[in-house]
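Forwarding the complex inputs:
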Amino acid sequence: MRILALVKYSFDIAELRVNPETEELRMRGVPERFGDIDKNVVEAAVRLKEEHGGTVRVLTVGGPAARTALKEILAMGVDDGVFVVDPFEGGGQPSAMVDILEAAIGRSGQFDLLLCGFASDDGYTSQTGPRLAERLSLPLVSYAQELSVAGDVLTATRDLKDHTQGVRVVTPAVVTIAEESFTPRSVTLLDAMKAQKKPVEDLTVEELGLEVEALEARSEFIELSRKGVVVRRRQEILKGEDQDVLADRLIDVLVRDGVLFEEA
Amino acid sequence: MAECILVWSDDDSLLAELLGEASRLAVPGEQEVGVCSLGAPSDVDQQRLASLGADVVYVLDAKADSPGLLVAGLTAAMAEVPAGLFLIGATRTGMEVAPRVAERVGAGYAPWTTGIQLEGSDRQLIASCMLFAGFGRAVCRYGSGPTIVTSALGVFEAVETVRDTIRVEAVGAKEVDSRVEIVEEKAKDAAAGLEQARVIVDCGKGIRERDDLEMVRSLAQVLDGELACSRPLSSDRDWFADWLGLSGTKVRAELCLTLGISGAVQHVVGIRESRVVAAVNNDPDAAIFTQADVGVMADLYEFVPALMERLKARHIRSSS
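Prediction (whole assembly, two chains):
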């Protein structure tokens, strides 16, 4: 089983801050790391390899910090990596990033499964897997939370909102991994040391036969402005020792706000 | 901008809202509002779709449970009609099929849209889209070609019209075999209707034992509300099938009462569209107090029984 796993070095959006006056999104100093969902993807890939043999290769597009952090991903039991320098430094449009991934996947050679997160931790728009499935003319199994393989048949459980769905597909296929599935393993010091020696192929978009200007020319949209979302709440605080009094005060506030009603 | 604005969702409430927005955008006499419907023409509720603002129903011969066939059907509809703008509901299935149809048609794609304007004589699409899972918003101008937009429940408003005539047309997809075979469907035992609930009682890590859920469940009953939780109570402790937040369900209740919720941003995203947020926490520094209209600094184990007692004694209801 040859598995190609796509991972993304992402902003930790829990650390995003918005200036309440200007509504400006403060991106400076927001930590970045390979996303939680991306680690679920790698875990899913490595588990399949452990059960069925084969290889796991990771592919990512990013900057120098992502190149360094890729070792953490390799340490999870991945065989090798492909690293493409992001010509847009994180600012590329989703369609352009898919152009780059498509070219890198084509160069990487045959695979049985292409795994990626159902969404990235930061962008969260769920486009990469579906778009790549179309580009590669492969079947797509989305939101997978369980995977098993027998020969060239993949069986998966899809996590849909109010139900789960068991599906079967003949590989090669594209699979997107659901959140909260495939809890990533912890990595030992030995794993981390071994990862230092694992091969990573470094590529530029030019080496993939693409031109940055041509990628830019295919832009789907022009961003006119961006803002942080500021939710303004009253932040009224109630405190006191007597719980009954406190309860009455909360009820009074909620009646005044028109969300609770007192019988006349 | 072509002559048709097309709409599809696998969620009926969301479909109604998208039809409302499509009717608002369509130029009377110049543009039609079309809705995609799956299955047999006889299954189409023509009167309902007409009253929601649709001029024409495109009946696709595809099953809703097979995304591959759905993509083929929606692609055929968008290309054959042809539609310049296609509004798709941002459900799980919607978020999978929208970028796939965009790839096949060669359309632009505006995900998680929170507002749409068509500007100028060529009616260019200006879309406001969520950034970083809702922490920000970007306003983007799309090109003159066809564009697909996805929007979540609660963004747009449904309309009721008196119109009762509607055309029905069939659209045939080229692909009829799905490469992904469905072998099993299993319902989850998730609490239904969190998105529609007027009152949400939202539990966090401050709830110490599983047995303590009885107490908060009683409170939810007194308030005629639904019980919900933050992610750790679902994914780590496995007490709930579903959670509120960035990766879970997003609610828009009249009242969201949080109990022992610390206020991590990933969770707050799931409740912040609620009209009133009230928080109970014993930690004065809990972030939830900055995200709430009213905060009660108290031990929830002492406060919740007192609150239930007072709600009952004062005959408080959550509907007028």
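DSSP finds seven helices and 16 strands in chain A.
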